[in-house]
Specification:
- The chain is α+β, with helices and mostly antiparallel strands.
- Among the domains are: 151 residues, Methyltransferase, Cobalt-precorrin-4 Transmethylase, Domain 2 (2-Layer Sandwich); 71 residues, no CATH class; 76 residues, Winged helix-like DNA-binding domain superfamily/Winged helix DNA-binding domain (Arc Repressor Mutant, subunit A).
- It is built from 21 helices and 22 strands.
- The strands form 7 sheets. Strands 12-11-15-16-18-17 form a 6-stranded mixed β-sheet, covered by helices on one side. It has a 4-stranded mixed β-sheet with strand order 1-2-7-6, sandwiched between helices.
- The longest helix is centred in the N-terminal third of the chain and has 18 residues.
Length: 576
C-alpha cells in the first residue's frame, strides 16, 4: 500500500544532493548476491549512524537521482527455481534482516523501494560475511576495525556481562572442590609460560601458598576479591546459581536414538569447571573397530577426539549469551554430537577465523574467557577453532559443521555438529596426500563430500585446481582426485554416461515390448542417471532425452501428451 508518508520519503530521498551511506540508487539491479550484500551493508550502516532506516531504490539514476523506472520485480523474483527472493534473503542473512519492499508508481516511471531496518543485536551478515557502507561504497566490515568496534558499541555490547561483580556473593558461595581444581590448573598455566625448569617447583609452591582470594585475583576470575558472574559460573556452588538469574546456567546432556526420540537427559549446573567434565563423561565415546590399514590412520580410534569435544563444549560455555536466558545443549545422536548455545557468532565467519588465525577485536564474555584461558579450559583466544578443524582433518574425520540460526523465539543461536563417522577412506587419504591444500580448501572439499552446495566463487576456486566437476548446486569430486582416491567408478556414476547409452536403452526396450508409457521409461532410466542430479533434474533429463530422440526420428509419441505412449520411429535413425 502506497502511503503519503512513503511518497514523502521518496521525494526526500530523490532530493538528496548525493548518495549517502544509508541510501543507494540503482536502475535494474537483479543480482541476488549483490542485493544481499547491500542489505547487510545498509542495515549495518543505519545502526552505526543511528538512522531509523536505510534505503535501496530501483529505477533512479545514480548521479542525477532522476526517476528512470525499473522492471525489477522483487515479489515475483525467484531463486533456485521456486524460492522467493524475499524468503531467500531472510535465510541468507544472520541475524535475520528486517526489511520490506515497496512499489511506487511515480509519474516518470515505476520505483521499487527496499526499506531496511538497522541492525539490532549484532551486525547483519550476508552468507556469513558482514558488510558496511563507507561513504557510497560497499565493503567488508572486517576491513574497517574502527567502524566494527563502534558498531558493536552502538548495538549495546559495551558491558561485559561475565565481568559484572555480584555484591551479595562471597567466597563461601564458591565450591571447595572447584577451588582446589582451579589452583592446580592455574599453576599449570603459569608453568607453561615459564621456560626455566628449575623454577617449576618454586612456582608450584608459591601457587599452593596463596590464599583463595589471591589465587582468584591473579587468575582474573574475581575483581579485588569481589565475586564476578564469571567466578560463579566457573567455580560457584550449584545452590548459588540464583545469583545469575535470569540466566539459566546449565549444560544439558540429551541422548537421542536413530528416530530422534529423547532417551533421557541430565542437567549440570555450576561449577562449570567440573560440570563440563561430568557432561563429557556422559557421552558414549565408542571405539570404532573397522579402520583402514596404513599409517595415516590410528587403529582403533575413538568416535570423538577428546580434545575436540572438550574444546567445543568449553567454547559453548565461553560464548553463550547468558543474558538471553537459555542453557547449553549437548545432544548425542547415534552418529554425531550437536552442541548449541545462544548468542550471535561474533567473528565475521568460521572461514575468517581459519584464514586469519587471530581472535576478533571483540568478545561477548571477555572476563569469562580470560579466566577460562588461565584455568586451561580453552586455548588462547582465537586458536581453538582452527585446531579443531586441523585435528579432525588429521584424524580423517569430517570437519566440524557450524550453523548460525535462530530459535523459535527469534533468539540468535550457534550450533556445532561433530560427526562420529569416518569420511570415505580413499578420499581422506587423497586429502592427506595433497599437502598443497590449505585448510580453507579442505573445508570446501569437505562440503562437497557431504553433498553441500558451494558459493560460485568457491566452486570456481576448486574447479581451477581440478578438484571438482559437475554443475551447481551438485558438485562432485573430479576425475583427477577420483583417480588418486580410487573412486573412478563413483566418478563415472556421478558424471553419468553419454546420451547414446540412454538412447540405446530406450530403443532396446521399445523393440522388445513395442511401446512404453512415460512411467515405464522413467522406471528404465531414472535409476541409471547420475546421483548428483536432483529428482527434478533427473525428470527433466528424461524429458529432454525423449524430445531429442523424437526430433531425430528415433521415437514418436502415440496419443495425447501425458496420456499416450512411446513407440519406435520409422526413420533410419531408429536403428541405433
Amino acid at each position: 500500500m502506497i502511503t503519503p508518508a512513503l511518497l514523502d520519503t521518496l521525494a526526500r530521498l530523490l532530493s538528496l544532493p548525493r548518495e549517502q551511506c544509508t541510501v543507494e540508487f540503482k536502475s535494474n539491479l537483479a543480482d541476488k548476491d549483490e542485493i544481499g550484500q547491500y542489505l547487510s551493508a545498509l542495515a549495518n550502516a543505519a545502526a552505526l549512524e543511528g538512522h531509523e532506516r536505510a534505503w535501496l531504490l530501483w529505477g533512479v539514476a545514480d548521479g542525477s537521482h532522476a526517476v528512470t523506472g525499473t522492471s525489477f520485480d522483487p515479489l515475483g523474483a525467484k531463486v533456485g527455481g521456486n524460492q522467493s527472493l524475499v524468503m531467500w534473503l531472510q535465510q541468507m542473512t544472520q541475524p535475520r534482516a528486517d526489511f520490506q519492499f515497496h512499489e511506487v508508481a511515480h509519474p516518470q516511471g515505476r520505483v521499487v523501494m527496499l526499506e531496511i531496518h538497522p541492525a539490532r543485536s549484532a551486525p547483519v551478515a550476508f552468507q556469513q560475511v558482514r558488510y558496511i557502507r563507507v561513504d557510497s561504497h560497499k565493503t567488508r566490515l572486517g576491513e574497517h576495525p574502527d567502524k566494527e568496534a563502534r558498531l558493536w558499541a552502538r548495538l549495546g555490547v559495551k558491558e561485559d556481562w561475565s565481568g559484572v561483580v555480584v555484591p551479595e556473593a562471597t567466597l563461601d558461595d564458591l565450591d571447595p572442590e572447584a577451588l582446589a581444581a582451579a589452583r592446580q590448573r592455574f599453576a599449570e598455566y603459569r608453568l607453561r609460560s615459564e621456560p626455566d625448569a628449575d623454577r617449576h617447583e618454586a612456582i608450584r609452591a608459591e601457587t599452593e601458598g596463596w590464599s583463595d582470594e589471591t589465587l582468584l585475583n591473579k587468575a582474573r576470575i574475581t575483581k579485588q576479591g569481589r565475586i564476578t558472574r564469571a567466578a560463579l559460573l566457573l567455580l560457584g556452588r550449584d545452590e548459588a546459581a540464583h545469583f545469575l538469574s535470569p540466566a539459566d546456567a546449565k549444560i544439558s546432556w540429551i541422548p537421542r536414538d536413530a528416530s530422534n526420540a529423547t532417551l533421557t537427559s541430565q542437567h549440570f549446573g555450576p561449577p562449570f569447571l567440573l560440570a563440563t567434565e561430568k557432561a563429557f563423561a556422559r557421552v558414549r565415546n565408542l571405539t570404532l573397530d573397522h579402520m583402514p590399514d596404513g599409517t595415516l590412520f590410528p587403529t582403533p580410534v575413538p568416535r570423538y577426539d577428546s580434545w575436540v569435544m572438550r574444546e567445543a563444549l568449553h567454547n559453548a560455555v565461553a560464548h553463550q549469551d547468558y543474558a538471553l536466558g537459555g542453557k547449553i545443549n549437548l545432544v548425542e545422536h547415534p552418529d554425531r554430537l550437536v552442541l548449541s548455545n545462544l548468542g550471535q557468532f561474533i567473528p565475521e565467519s568460521v572461514e575468517w577465523m581459519l584464514e586469519h588465525q587471530s581472535p576478533p577485536e571483540h568478545y561477548r564474555n571477555q572476563w569469562l574467557i580470560d579466566g577460562m584461558i588461565r584455568l586451561r579450559m580453552i586455548d588462547q583466544a582465537g586458536s581453538g577453532i582452527r585446531r579443531m578443524f586441523t585435528t579432525q582433518r588429521q584424524r580423517l574425520f569430517p570437519l566440524p559443521d557450524y550453523l548460525f540460526d535462530t530459535t523459535p523465539q527469534g533468539l540468535p543461536r550457534v550450533e556445532l555438529t561433530l560427526q562420529g563417522q569416518v569420511l570415505d577412506v580413499n578420499f581422506a587419504r587423497a586429502l592427506m596426500a595433497r599437502s598443497d591444500l590449505n585448510l580453507g580448501q579442505v573445508l570446501l572439499l569437505d562440503r562437497v563430500q557431504k553433498g553441500r552446495s558451494l558459493a560460485p566463487d568457491q566452486a570456481r576456486a576448486l574447479r581451477e585446481l581440478g578438484l571438482i566437476e559437475g554443475r551447481a548446486p551438485r558438485h562432485f569430486i573430479s576425475a583427477k582426485v577420483a583417480e588418486v582416491a580410487g573412486q573412478k567408478a563413483r566418478y563415472i556414476h556421478n558424471r553419468g554416461l553419454d546420451d547414446g547409452y540412454y538412447q540405446r536403452l530406450v530403443v532396446d526396450y521399445l523393440r522388445r515390448y513395442g511401446h512404453a508409457t512415460r512411467s515405464d521409461l522413467d522406471a528404465l532410466l531414472l535409476a541409471k542417471l547420475p546421483d548428483v542430479l536432483s529428482p527434478t533434474q533427473k525428470a527433466n533429463k528424461v524429458k529432454n532425452l525423449l524430445q531429442a530422440m523424437r526430433l531425430a526420428g528415433l521415437v514418436h509419441r502415440h496419443g495425447p501428451r501425458g496420456q499416450g505412449d512411446w513407440r519406435l520411429g520409422t526413420g533410419p535413425e531408429s536403428a541405433v
